[in-house]
Fold these 4 entries.
Entry 1:
Amino acid sequence: MMRRVDERRMKVVSLFGTGEDEKMVHGRKGLFVVIDGLDGSGKGVIQDAVAEQCKITGLRVLDLNEFWKNSRTHPIFTSDKDPRYYVDMSLYDVVLTSEPTYCGIGKMIRDEFIKTGSDYTATETAAAYGLDREILHRKVLFPLLDEGKIIVQSRNVVSSLVYQPVQAEERRESLTREDVVSIHGNNYCLENGPNLVVIPVIQDPSGLMERLKGRKKKDDSCFERLEFQMKLNPHYQSNALRELLEGYGSKVGYVDASQTEVVTIRETLGLLKKEYGEMFGLSYVDVSRRAEQIWDTFERERIRKLKSVIEFPHK
């Protein structure tokens, strides 16, 4: 069994960077997929589902979010540096990341800039995101893409293009989408952007607040308000955003996140099958059955953790 998994993994890895269209955006061997959308729209479910599909295919997955939370710094990919933060990337094929990061400026954004009651301006917030984003790309994403890795990231510059102009409008400040693009970190990352942007679509955002209340992660973000999310929603679905991203070379795909998580996973797998079927091991897969399989795995893990808490409450 292990030999068959290794053979599948090597076949998939051999595909990295072979398509000329995959070198149009960031110019590197790897594949960069971003999931971006409203708060509570299912970005985490999509990222987890893509990671699970990669594991089924035999690819080895590193969750960099956990590394950041534990170390509060970016990893180092050369063994002659500080061994505490060294990560041997020959052991992994797929890396999960997110914005903002959980270290440096990214942690400041989470802890200060976007907390409820924050008095930072939209321009200051956009600049902080841009700098965190550029550091992430230079220190982490680009070295990984140069090595031919698959990166699956929750949020990127798309969030700033949507959130900060609306934030400025609410605060009666002046900040247009063009202003956000002109920030160096944002412009740099658009010019070296993802191969694919996946946007989970919510037709009626009124149910988002219930989702946010029920999730484990509590951000206390100033953006997690229904009124604010309602203002963001049309921007995510706009032709203007799609055309801007496509103008920089990124593909844009939409998935239905208004129904069940299984539907969202199924549509995500369908999109990946269409664009990168071989790379994600989906060419000959029934995505409906695979979505059910992945969701069952998530539910079993959730029940296992719940039982663990019940049996060992002191932990």
Entry 2:
Amino acid sequence: MRKYLIIVSVILAAALCTCVFAATLTHKSIDIESGVSVYVDGEKLNPSDVNGNAVDVFTSGGTTYLPARAISEALGCKIDWNDAEARVDITTDSGKTADAVSGATQTQPAGKKILVAYFSREGSSYPQEGVDTITSASLPVGNTKLLAEHINSMVGGDLFQIVTEEPYPGNYIETTEKAQTEKEQNARPALSTHVDNMDEYDVIFIGYPTWWSSVPMPIYSFLEEYDLSGKTVIPFRTHHEGSVGTPDNSEIKALCPNSNVLTGISVPGSKVDSSDDAVRDWLDGLDY
């Protein structure tokens, strides 16, 4: 049966059973085909709203649309509506969620607040193919920032950029020279950004590029600024070349002696955009 429907709601697309997403409510007029049947584990589902009224399942433009509450409850998921944010939260017992907009799996421990903090330098990145190391015009966004954004999309935390008062040179070679001097002097570069509510966070992901086979000194400045006792700290880093691996956590553990420092991940800068599967596997293996 073909119908003409005006929708003023948030609707969950078929095949997604667990999600967290924010939406802006808009009016849309669409042409639909109704009368679609839904079966869960071989049993027919008769979807209804919170008041027990029947709700249609329909298709439009080749996509099947299912009522979020009915499907979630049929699958044993908890569902909540946040009116202030126009947001539907659907959660499984494991606390794992999936982003209905991007399709990225989110692994978020129930009841824990997460911060994804990162230090990332913009400019050239020698010798990445296609990057001009002299003019530094080819890398407007740092690889570590991109990795931090990927991780944050999966864990649903708050993203925070660690920024130094004195910017690093856009030219890669000049940056390595500055980084070497800071390392030799055991410097603590002054930071221009600060986390005012660090006490509220239970889990801190800390990201950085690998400089001179070690942690950049701005990370020392950041971690020494706060008391992270009892918190879970999870490092992630980018490096020049090679494969995805596990970084040496010794420096981070020394900086956070009273924290639970978990196994980190190390991703080549040139592979950040294709690292989602590896990052997701790493996150799924963490106990935080």
Entry 3:
Amino acid sequence: MTPSLFSNLKSLFEKKSRREAIEGYLLIAAGTSVILFFSIFVMLYAFYLSFFSWDFLTPMKFVGVENYVKVFEEIWDGICGGSPFRTQFFIGIKNVLFYTAIVVPTQTILAIILAVFANQKIKGISFYKVSYFLPSVTCSVIIALIFVWLFQKEGLINYFLSSMIPGFAPNWMRDVHYALWAIMLVAIWGTSGNLMISFLAALQALPQEVYEAASIDGAGRFKKFFYITLPLLKPMIGYSVVVGTIGCLQMFDLAYAMPGPGFSTTTVVQNIYNTCFAESKVGLACAKSFFLFAVIFAITYAMRRKFRYETT
């Protein structure tokens, strides 16, 4: 009788677990379908289109790797100093690499500093946290349009700059030397708050016993920060750098809403957008997209290996 009872209970639990599994799959079916269609299927279809010549109107024509050859020819022409009108993709790569090299380390360092201040127990710290986090949840296009007005030659930013540096009042969005820098400042201001929350959570999760032991040994605040806090934050720093790099290499919204003169603010994604929807070269745009994917994958893979090696 006992074996029969155990077998009945086992059968009951198996049926219950099977029913729970079916219910779980049904609950995630809608979200999974959306992800499969709008990410996996779209990515595979874009890779398929990269081997065709298509302008949305005429039938698709198979061209093999011709689109990829055109991408590398455009890059090579840019390296050799070709006309900017024929090397916009190469100019976008240069701009976005420079943009990434400035924005990612600056926003990461600023986020760490803000998180350290936000971690202090002082009056009004909640308002401080909200005020720095608010730009990260505001529409980037709205922020860009506001800063276009602020960056005017007679705008508010130049008003304060000219009071500190007499005679310095550049026409930010009309000068090829300053347009991209203006976009960088907006990006740093808008993203540091989001990273600050991540670093704040990491700081509050650090073991306090280490700091107590350091205090007993006579370590000051700066020694604690450089010899305890920063080393313990390395995993979060690595995560922030990788995520920031991916976002910067795909930057589009700020460059589209804050255009500079000529090709001074052209980015890779912006050139892909123009190639597809302005020039109606869908296959070439898809080839450029997968070239950008390969660049992002290579850079992020190398960075992840580096940070993983340093943290082990």
Entry 4:
Amino acid sequence: MLLFLVYQGGFYLLLAVFLLMVLGLYEFRNIIKKSHCQALSFPLWISALLFPLIYLLKYNYIIPLLFFYLIFCYFSYLRNYPQYSPLDLSFTLLGVIYVTCGFFHLILLRQMTDGFWLIIYLFIIVWSTDTGAYFIGTFFGKHQLAPAISPKKTWEGFLGGLFTGIIAAYLFSISVPSLSLVEGRILLYIAPLVSIAGQMGDLFESTLKRFAQIKDSSQIIPGHGGILDRFDSTLLAAPLTYYLFNILERLL
């Protein structure tokens, strides 16, 4: 279903990403609440409307809109102080950067030339990295990667995921006929960083859950956890893919 919406693009993808934003922000808010902190609810929900508005305005006035949104967050914090602490404001802005901005980069990727294939590339790298890290870590893992965050993750799994991510990028770059030679080279060049970013995104979400002392971000997807559990890698890998591809496209 998601791949069909990515293929359709436009309003359908915008609506799907908006829904993911809302659900992701809901889970993030609950994680913070279970951490005995609180996010500023109204500014957090407004952020889900901010980026679709930027899209509808064709990316005009991005800086002013973000500036006034930031001022709005400060005003909401000051108006409700001491109900909210500076830490609560910080968590609110973290939710905007992590969840809202992360998902919005799927829209930005889709609007690029060959945007559909770029998102498919992103998903393939993330999924192949996760799969490779899981199986290689399960069978060969001995050295813990980040025991304080996720005791089961190992350096062997990390390197295995990186290897499978690069192999998947190579196979993808030579399999899609619409990609130019330069675009194929760029996708191969950035694959290691995208793979690492995906694994970092996984670890980052794990720190949030450990902070809140919960196993899953929610139970919205039976047997698989929540939206953030499914898209934790994508939320960091999508912005990195977008910016690295644009930079290298201009340089090569």
